[in-house]
Specification:
The protein is α/β, with parallel strands linked by helices. About 30% of the residues lie in helices and about 20% in strands. It is globular.
């Protein structure tokens, strides 16, 4: 029974180790307490807590969550947190204690949040996923994932709770920023890139981490856009839309998956055996670990009310397919008792333990449980990663409007620029949710980015107002500042900045100040869902007052969900949608404002005219219904939309052959020309429309895209393949099928601007 032999397959080693374990040790492997509670940081030293030591002695710790996480929830701040080197040393100490003071010496699985960077002090903060999706650059995202994995593993983190693969159907949802967008194909391509980038060629490499796909499934389609609300979705739509990116990621080798909080058709995902066993394991062949979201098992007995008490909730979750519980409260409290009372089948317990141990063996934790702390200091926040963050931020910025060529600004004009608005110089509000605290000099705000371009003497600044609230005390200073400038850059939007108790901003001077009543501007992020998509507070009023001065007005949105402000759409000279662009966002935005970078971002989520239009996602059914009395169903800005400082012309769309059998492919080509005078990058988008089908279908669906760079006057022929994967759908018998008939193949700039050609799929045997 040599589980120590690395030549044996991981699962075989796991099964050998299982035979040596007591019931207490088995249950312990399924428990994941909060890692930041395992130690104290005092006077530069890490001291392990006695509660953690006692749990190790009982065999009761298999994993730790968020050991290096820093935010208001953990209470870890810049002052009390650990540097990159200290963090690695602390994880080594925790790991060493667990190995040396437990009977079988099983290493811990250290899990960390890495949605857009390792959520630890010092780590690189990349743009949020909504911005990453808007870049439409799969290769660049894969490169980012390699960087995040390198930073995380350097500190001992071996599994990450990302990527988020939820399809957004109602952007009032506060977690919209954590998602790539509204389209399953695009999300699926990014899902594969995340698996390849994070996990690398080998999971046991010292720069690889195991991904955890989340949230499985339907989480972005909750009732009313309310977090963890019920999902009303048919099985066909679930298979075609929300499950698609998860299937693609599982096929790519994803090592772990996290069920969502929500219910679907009355069944909570945490106990949905049809999803967790039938679809995920039996149909897709998933052989990884399934871990709950925090508190999800508690919700079964107090929220969903599908279990009478905590014990029933824990047993039902485990037997449905759950392997590990984040927080560990319910499994740790009830599973051993349930086993002894015959309420839990030992086979279900053993199945879960084997999956957990198998992942640990795959990660190489038994052979290399410790990291080189000095390497953590070199890898985390490296200059290469900072450069990558700036490029991703720039490629994710979407130019929504550019009336009369208002942009780019001319840095040589000698004019002054007024940077006004609550998000102009609030670094933490630029980073999005799931972000650790940052020193002020690490985050380049829009104000800092513009000053770096022009010099401080030509750049004026006033915050004007806060993101939320009715305080207009800053209006007079902001208006006077705007009067002195030739161009006004209004930086407005939202904030997912959680309250560190650091104070607020003086609306008259723009300086930070500490008050007894700390103001919280957060209007987005997990658990922060809204009834409206309008700007919070008095921001719109501030923009309107500045507009009266007659200056060139450029609006920059920094936010985590679409903003529906028709007045700004109509009256601003130019509009940039930057989402939460990360630590280098200010430099990236300035690069675009002054033409050093030609904007190439394209929307991955439709922006409605008004919240009353919702839902407005582009791939809705043809049978979606008629228009409203007040307006049509078209959004202000459609999926795939984005302007450039140059123009692109599409021509010569061909589909060859124009007739194929269900199992054959057609080649699609189109010529794209840069007809302007500056170089740029265009996102060429391929859509398919099934003209008639046995079940209702969307009017069109994204099935391919390519981002290409073009010099002025250059023409490039872009090619795609259209075959079974692009043409199939879930038919009347709930199986994937390519139905014979006519299809439209559409290629163009965005979902509402395409060329079209016909493709006929013949019956098998037709000639």
């Amino acid at each position: 029974m040599d589980d120590k032999d690395p030549s044996k397959p991981p699962r075989v080693r796991a099964e050998l180790l299982l035979r040596q374990m007591t019931a207490e040790e088995k249950v312990g492997q399924l428990v994941q307490p909060f890692g930041w509670q395992a130690y104290e940081h005092k006077d530069g030293n890490v001291v392990l807590k006695e509660t953690f030591k006692a749990q190790v002695a009982r065999g009761g710790v298999g994993s730790l969550y968020g050991t290096l996480r820093a935010d208001p929830w953990t209470g870890v701040t810049l002052e009390t947190g650990l540097s990159p080197v200290q963090g690695a040393e602390a994880v080594n100490e925790i790991q060493r204690y667990a190995i040396e003071n437990s009977r079988l010496g099983i290493p811990l699985l250290i899990g960390e949040e890495c949605s857009h960077g390792h959520m630890a002090i010092g780590a690189t903060v990349f743009p949020v996923p909504l911005s990453i999706g808007s870049a439409w650059n799969v290769g660049l995202y894969r490169e980012m994932c390699r960087a995040v994995a390198k930073e995380t593993r350097a500190q001992g983190g071996a599994v990450t709770y990302s990527p988020v693969l939820d399809i957004v159907r109602d952007p009032r949802w506060g977690r919209t920023e954590e998602c790539f967008g509204e389209d399953p194909y695009l999300v699926g391509e990014l899902a594969v890139a995340a698996v390849e980038g994070m996990q690398g060629e080998r999971l046991d490499a010292q720069d690889s981490v195991a991904v955890t796909l989340k949230h499985f499934v339907g989480y972005g389609s909750s009732e009313g856009g309310r977090n963890a609300g019920p999902v009303h979705m048919g099985w066909r739509e679930l298979l075609e839309v929300d499950l698609h990116p998860f299937r693609k990621a599982v096929e790519a080798g994803a090592a772990s998956i996290m069920p969502a909080y929500n219910e679907i058709d009355g069944v909570p995902c945490t106990t949905n055996a049809k999803l967790l066993d039938e679809v995920l394991v039996r149909d897709w062949g998933f052989d990884g670990m399934i871990v709950t979201d925090c508190g999800a098992i508690d919700m079964l007995a107090a929220g969903h009310d599908t279990a009478e008490d905590g014990m029933e909730a824990a047993v039902r979750a485990l037997e449905a397919g759950i392997d590990m519980e984040m927080s560990g409260e319910m499994f740790g409290r009830y599973l051993l008792q349930a086993l002894s009372e015959g309420k839990l089948k030992e086979a279900a317990l053993d199945r879960a333990v084997v999956r957990v141990l198998t992942l640990k063996f795959k990660l190489g934790l038994f052979e290399r449980p410790y990291v080189d702390a000095q390497l953590a200091g070199e890898a985390i926040g490296s200059s290469e990663h900072v450069t990558l963050a700036r490029q991703l931020a720039a490629e994710g910025v979407v130019l929504l409007k550019n009336e009369g060529g208002a942009l780019p600004l001319d840095p040589a004009s000698g004019g002054k620029v007024a940077v006004i608005g609550p998000n102009a110089d609030l670094g933490y509000s630029q980073l999005g949710d799931y972000t650790s605290p940052q020193p002020a000099d690490k985050v380049a705000t829009v104000l800092a980015g513009i000053r770096a371009k022009l010099g401080a003497e030509r750049v004026l600044y006033a915050p004007g107002c806060r993101i939320r609230g009715e305080d207009r005390d800053g209006f007079p200073v902001a208006l006077e500042t705007a009067r002195q400038a030739d161009t006004v850059v209004m930086v407005v939007g939202g904030s997912s900045a959680r309250d560190f108790g650091d104070g607020t901003i003086d609306l008259r001077t723009g300086a930070s100040k500490v008050t007894e009543d700390v103001w919280n501007d957060m209007d987005c992020g997990e658990g922060i869902d809204r009834m409206s998509l309008r700007l919070s507070g008095v921001q719109l009023e501030l923009v309107q007052e500045v507009h009266k001065l007659g200056k060139r007005l450029v609006v920059v949105y920094i936010n985590g969900r679409p903003i529906a402000e028709p007045w700004i759409d109509a009256n601003a000279d130019a509009i940039l949608e930057a989402w939460y662009p990360g630590q280098e966002g200010g430099h990236a935005i300035a690069d675009i404002l002054f033409g050093d970078v030609n904007p190439s971002g394209r929307l991955t989520i439709s922006i409605p005219k008004d919240v009353g239009q919702l839902p407005v996602y582009y791939n809705g059914k043809r049978s979606r219904g008629k228009r409203y009395l007040e307006s049509d169903l078209r959004p202000s800005y459609p999926f795939g939309y984005g302007l450039s400082y140059t123009n692109y012309e599409y021509a010569n769309l061909t589909v060859s052959p124009s007739e194929i059998a269900p199992g054959e492919e057609a080649a699609v080509s189109v010529d794209v020309t840069n007809t302007g005078v500056v170089a740029g990058a265009e996102v060429v988008q391929l859509y398919v429309s099934d003209v008639a089908s046995a079940c209702t279908r969307p009017a069109l669906e994204l099935k391919g895209f390519e981002k290409i760079g073009l010099a002025p006057g250059e023409t490039r022929t872009v090619r795609f393949k259209v075959g079974r994967e692009q043409l199939e759908y879930v038919g009347p018998d709930y199986k994937r099928v390519v139905e014979p008939g006519r299809f439209k193949v559409l290629v163009g700039r965005h979902s509402a601007d395409t060329l079209a050609a016909d493709l006929l799929v013949k019956e098998d045997g037709d000639r």
